[in-house]
Each structure stands twice: as structure tokens, then as C-alpha cells.
Amino acid sequence: MKMKSGITVSVVMVLFLLVELTVSLSSRTEWSALLELRSSMGIRGKEWPKKTDPCRNWTGVECRNDQVVGIKVAGLNRTHKGRLNPSFEVDALANFTLLESFNASGFMLNGSIPEWFGEKLGALKELDLRSCSISGVIPGSLGGMRSLKKLFLSRNNLTSRVPSGLGLLSNLSILDLSRNLLSGSVPESFSKLGNITRLDLSNNYLSGSIPPELGTLSNLQNLNLSNNSFTSSLPSQLGNLSKLVELDLSMNSLSGPLPGSLLSMPKLLIFDVSENSLTDPLPKLSGLNVSSGGIFNLSNNLFYGPVNGFMNKIKTIDLSSNYLEGDVQGDGGSLSDVALARNCLQMISNQRNLEECRMFYVQRNLTFASGGHESKKNKRLIFILAGIFGGFGFIVLLVLVLILVLKQCHKSKNLEIERGTTNGGPVTEGESPIPKDPVFVTAVGESFTFEQILHMTGNFDEANLIKHGHSGDFFWGVLDNGATVVVKRVDLSLFKRESYMVELGLLSKVSHARLVPILGHCMDNEKDKCIVYKYMLNGDLATSLHKVHDSDGKLQSMDWITRLKIATGVAEGLAYLHDCSPPLVHRDIRASSILLDDKFEVRLGSLSEVIAQGDLHQNAVSRVFSKPMSSNQGNSGKSSVTWAYDVYCFGKILLELVTGNIDISKSDDATTKDWLEHTLCYITIFDKERLTKIVDPTLIVDEDLLEEVWAMAIVAKSCLNPKPSKRPPMRHVLKALENPLKIVREESFSSAKLRTTSSNRSWSTAFFGSWRHSSSDSGATITHTNREGSSGNKQTGRVGSHGSGGNDHSSSNKRSSNEVFPEPLGMQDVESGEAK
Fold it and tell me: Where in the cell is it found (predicted)?
């Protein structure tokens, strides 16, 4: 036994001596710190092998005089555990007293920047934490890093205000805080950044006025404050920035005049103040003092008055969507490089309406010089149009009379059909709406009296309240036989009458195992109407995905098999609704509307929002069964609703199941859209490993299960295509979820065959091909929704902003992926662009 112990000690001593001989670090503390950093960040052994010299053999480690001066983990491979739990655990960095550079760009580090960074990394000259999924606030202690020259914190989820302590970084040359969630004003202390050459605060939520003190930053070459909420007027002091090459102040709420000093900076190449509310006469453009090939964008403001010439040296100038008037007079500039649409100019096409221009000038007590000339032309035009329309007036009148007659006949026919309608099965196309009186509800479960309902719920006791829904309040209830039920109380003084009529009307016409079972109803109370549902033992998906276990109080997450089962169940229910005639749109697919019974079988709830596709104007009861609008209406908008909206919402449900983030489906605010945009960057048919950066860390998955998770994520991205016409029908999505491995494995094993023979098409092509070819769109562009919730140009600059790029792929690879990847070509193009 003693001999074995002696051998063990000898082996340990030999290994220790080997390590001593191979490590050239002069500090044992730094060697231990590197090993600790290797473990906490989950860096693979092949990148940082233990038995080799870190200064010579470790990727990204830079030494000087046998001491670590630089660490770059960007692009390094991580262990499986490190990918699933990417936390900000870098305490070991505090041991590197001479560290000058730390680069973790694109390396997931969930968490916040520790406060000690600015206290113990005093020698740091470059800190790069771009696209690391960092959250929380920027520590004010970073102002203590007086040697810092470059600070990159862009494309994260940093919140709160910009700390004024950053203004103490007198040696700083580059400060990039763009594409975060920062708010508040720009600190006045930034005027002390005398050596800064690039300042980027774009794509945040900064407000207030632009500090005039920024005009004192004499070395500044690039200033980007775009896509924020800055107000007030432009400070003329910015014209003192004689070295400025690029100035971007677009997409804010700036007002007032445009200072002429901003147009006379000698080295200015790019100047963008578009998408603001700048007003007053446009300064003389003939006085622009710009370098050769300058690009100026003054569009979408309120500039008025004449256009005062252009210069030859300007490459492009955009003056569109203003209120400029008169004749365009240039001094040699090319009008082909000038955008003048949506103004009040003469002899130029695509201008504003004359009345709109006149009203703009009248409201400001200004003279509209173009009015007289245009009025004569308009009078001649009016005479011509009057003659044309007068000749066709009689024909138009006859057509209108004919339409009214046909419409009346159609109403009479529908009335006859309605009288013969029964309550059996889905309504076929052309069948009339159900009666407005709720006589049909007798076919939906048992009829309860209001006294019975009060007895069930304990007079609607607050202790029995489950939640306040958007169509009524939900209470626990107990039947006489002891069975637990759920009762929805619709207070007609608070909710619309249609909310309960739609549910009962729907279930009197259609029947499916994936719809929530209704046990009965109560209609005999004038004020309160009630619906009694079967009790779902496992509640809804929102409360069951992560649930606290009663026995030990620990958080328990749903396993992957159950998640896949739930996704398939929801897809079955939606596919059934969409295949009805006319197609029915659920409109309220979210985690809280997906109910789960004792075996985690799915029952779709929140049926009060169901309508027939494309119909928003008819009575809430009749619209569920009315004749659908034209099938060509593929885009969901204010006047139509299609199945594509349900598919989009279902895509968010799939992402909830993959990532464990249960808050995605319940809102469409800017934060959710930013999260979606950031997450979709990690879903690609070309690289399964990227998915591990977003997968739910509580999921325990092996290689085969990870492929199923990968497949579901690909289907989710297809459902979230920004173009409704390019989202897959629900029946195709259901097929994909029933055979998830075929999505990802065919790409690996048969892509070469698929490119050479059209007869051996892939599984995905068989299911998704018909939908792809039916779309007339050849491409898609992801557009961000702005803070008010309407799609527009405000946030287009944020496309693909989060996450680092992937691998570059040849065009042949793209063609192959089109055959197996369940997305339209438009989405493929976007993904390929992100991967480059």
C-alpha cells in the first residue's frame, strides 16, 4: 500500500516538473489565473492546452517579458457546458496587472460588467465587449481606466444612463456604445474627451438636446447620434469640428433651422440629418465647402423656400420629402445625383399636392411663389378632367345602380339560406352567418343557472380568482359532484357582448380535440354571462414551462420531449382552424392561451378573438362564419387578417420552447423585437453549434435531441419571416414538427444529389415547395418595427445588429439550402447576408 502511495506522489511530482518546464510565465499567479479563466469561460482544451506554454501556444494570449499583456477570446471554441451557460465570470482578469487588451467580441457573456473592472484593470488600453449579450448598467468605475484608448460596448442590452465618469477617459480615441438600450442625456463631461476621434451613440433611447460642448472635440472625425430621441435644435458649435468626416444625426426629433456652419466643414464627406423636424429656409447649398464625393441627406424634414444651387463636388444630395418650392437652379451640379421627390417644385415629377403645399406656407404666414403658375395649369387640367368624367358620368351611374340591385338580391338569398342552417359541422363557403340571438348555445354543453354559477365560485370570491383576461375574469369552480372547473365571467358593462358569443358560436359549428372543452354556459343573467370550461391540471404553457416543484421548492423546467409534444399539438389545432372553410384565424396565440391537461395534451383557449380570414368589419358573431374575402389577400393589415398572422405568433411560441424565454409571445414591444432580431442571428441551417448560444440552459440534450431543437428553431425562423406571403402554411409546419430530424439531416447527407437531379427532391421541398412557388416575391428584407409599433424606416439601421457573423458560403451551398431549408428564398438571402 505504501509502495502505491509512493508511486502516486512520484507521478504528481513528475507532472508538476513538466508543467514548470513548459510554462515560461514569470508569475505563478498569472498561470493560475489563466487556468481559472479557461474554466469559468468554458474554453476548449485544444485552444488553451494545459501542458504547453500559454505565451507561445495558447490562442489569443499575448505576452511581453513573460507576462500576459493581451487576451483575445473572440472566435475561440467553447466546451458544451460553456455554450449552455455563458455567464460573465471573468474574476481571474484582476490578476493580470499589466493587461493592456481584452477582446471578447461575439463571445457570449450573459450578465453585467463587474464594478471592479475600472479599479483593477488600470493598465488596460483596449476593451472590446461587442455582441456579448451583456446586460445591466455601464459601471461608473470604468472612468478610472485612465490608460484606455478604445472602448467597444456596442450590440448588447445595456440599460440606464451613460455614466458621466466616461468623460474622465482623457486618452480615449474610440467610444462605441451603439445598439443598446441606453437612455437619458449625453453627459456634459464628454467635452473633456480631447483625444477622441470616433464617438458612436446611435440606436439607443437617448433624449434631451445635443450638448453644444461636443463642438470642442477638435480631433473628432466620426460622430453618430442617429436613431435616438434627441430634441431641440442643432447646436451651431458642431460646425467647429474642422476634422469631422462623417456626421449622422438622422432619425431623431430635432427641430429648428439647420445652422449654416454645419455645411461649411472642410473635410465633411457624409452628412445625414434626415428623418427629423428641421425647418426654416434651406441654407445656400452653393456655399457648401465639402471634400470631393460628399454625400448629403436632408430628406424627410420641413425645409421650405427655393433650392439655392448645387456644387459639382457633391456626389449625392437627398432633399426629398420637404416643402421646397420654385424652379431648380444649379451652378453646374448634376440633377441625376439630386433627389427632389415630394416637394413643391415646378417642372419636377413626383411632387406634393398643390393644396398641401399651399396650406403649409399659409400656416407659417409665408408666400407660396409657385401658386400662380400652378393654378393656371390646374384650371386647364380641371376643364379637361371635367369633360372626360362628364362623358362617362352616365355610364358610372348605371354601374352603381346595377351593383345595388345585385347586392339586394344577394342579401335576400343569404336570408333564405340562414333559415335553413343547422348546427352541424364546419360552415361551408357561401353559408350565411348564424342568428344574432344566442339560441345556438344550447348545443354547447350544459345550461347552468346563475345561482349554480354563484355556488360553484363562492359568489365569485376573490380567493377563487385565477386571472383577469381580456375577454373576462376567470375563477376556480367546483361542481356538485366535486369536479374542479374554470368559470369565465363576462361582465357586459366592461366587456363587449361578442366576446362570449364568438366562443360559443365557434364551438357550436366546429369540433376538434385541440380546442378547449366547454362544459356549459349561463345566459340567464342580464349583466353577467358565464362559460364553464374543463379544468386543465397543468394550467397553461406560461406557467408550466418553468415551474417550482412543491416538494423541494426548486425550479423545474419542462423536458424537451414534452416541449416538442406541445409544439406539435398547437400546430394541429391551428392547422385545423386554417383548413376550415372559410379559414379561421385564432389571432391570440401566446403562451397563456395554450392550455395543458394532466398528460400535457394541448387545448387551445382564448377563442373569443377567432375571426374568418380577411374579415374585420362584420358582426363579431357572424364574421366567424361569413364568406371569406379574396384569397389573394396575403398580407395582414388593418383591413384584413390571414392565417399568416397565426403562423408568426406560433413562431414566437417555438422560440419560447427552444430558448426558455417565456415572455416573447405576450408582447410586441420594441424590446421583444430587438430580442427576436438578436436571437434569429444564431439560427442557421449551416451551423448547428451557433444554436447553443441561445438554447434554454436548463435543457439537458444529447446530440440527437440537439438536432431536434435545431430543427424546431429553423421552423420558428421560417414562421417569423417578415413577409406574410413567405411564411409556411400550418399544415406544412405540422409535417415538419412531426419529422424534425429530416429538416437538418437531409442537408448533410443528400444535398449533392438534390442539386444534380430534380426527380429526387428532398422531404422539405415536398412539403414547402408549393408554398414557395406560389409567392411572387423574389426577396425579403427584414424591417424593424419602430417604437410606436408601426413598420417604417426608423429602425432599419438595426437590422442584423446583434451577434457576430457566421461562415462564408458559396453560391452552390445557398442553392442547396434552398431545397432543404424550410424558408422562402427571401429569408435565405437575409440569412446568407448575415452569415457573411
Answer: Membrane
Handedness of CA 559, 820, 686, 726 (dihedral sign): negative
Which residues make Cβ contacts (< 8 Å) with residue 112, sequence separation at least 6?
A: 88, 134, 135, 136, 137
Which neighbouring-strand residues pair with 474? Answer: 467, 488
Q: What are the tens digits of pLDDT across the range 588-621?
A: 899 989 999 989 999 998 888 888 775 544 434 3
What is the C-alpha to C-alpha distance for residues 518 and 88, in angstroms, rounded to an integer? 49
> Are the C-beta atoms of 452 and 487 separated by less than 8 Å?
no
Distance from C-alpha of 110 to C-alpha of 88, rounded to nearest angstrom: 6
Count of CB atoms within 10 A of residue 398's CB?
10
Helices of type H across 493-621: 498-509, 541-544, 560-578
Q: What is the pLDDT of residue 572?
A: 94
Identify whether 588 is a catalytic site residue: yes
Q: Hey, what's the torsion of the CAs at 305, 337, 245, 217, to 10 degrees?
A: 10
Residue 371's alpha-carbon distances to 142, 329, 386, 456, 779, in angstroms, are 60, 18, 21, 74, 43
What is the average per-residue pLDDT within 374-401?
A: 71
C-alpha cell at 794: 426608423
Rounded to the nearest 10 degrees, how much is the dihedral formed by the CA atoms of 579, 580, 584, 586?
Answer: -60
**H or E stretch covering 413:** helix 371-419
Buried b (16+ CB within 10 A) or exposed e, 336-374: eebbbbbbbbeebeebbebeebbebbeeeeeebbbbeeb
What radius of gyration do the chain's Cα atoms show?
Answer: 33
pLDDT score, position 221: 94
Retrieve residue 120's grid coordinates: 483593477
- The three-state secondary structure class of 758 is coil
| DSSP assigned state of 15 | H
pLDDT one-digit tens code per residue, 287-315: 565 554 578 888 898 888 887 665 555 66
On the question of pLDDT at 411 being above 70, the answer is no
CA–CA distance, 337 with 315 (Å, rounded to integer)? 7
Partners of 465 in the β-ladder: 475
Mean predicted confidence (pLDDT) in 648-670: 89
Whether the upstream peptide bond of residue 582 has omega within 30° of 0, thus cis, is yes
108-161 per-position pLDDT tens digit: 888 999 999 888 898 999 999 999 999 999 999 999 899 999 999 999 999 999
* 3-class SS letters over 561-578: HHHHHHHHHHHHHHHHHH
What does the buried/exposed string (b/e) look like for 30-53 if buried means 16 or more CB atoms within 10 Å of the residue's CB? bbebbebbbeebbbeeebbeeeeb
The per-residue pLDDT for 471 is: 76
| C-alpha span between 516 and 360 (Å, rounded) | 56
Q: Which three cell numbers stand for residue 70?
A: 493581451
CB 299 within 8 A of CB 320: yes
- Residue ranges covered by each domain of the chain: 373-420
For residue 488, give every residue at least 6 positions away whose Cβ sits within 8 Å of its Cβ, in sequence order, or none. Answer: 469, 471, 472, 473, 474, 475, 500, 530, 531, 533
Longest dimension (CA), the chain: 118
Indicate the DSSP class of residue 450.
H
Residue type, position 186, single letter: V
From the centroid of its chain, how far is CA 6?
A: 63
Q: What is the pLDDT of residue 349?
A: 81
- Please give the Cα distance from 307 to 304 (Å, whole number): 9
Instruction: Out of 176, 200, 248, 588, pick the active-site residue.
Output: 588
Above 50 in pLDDT, residue 515? Answer: yes
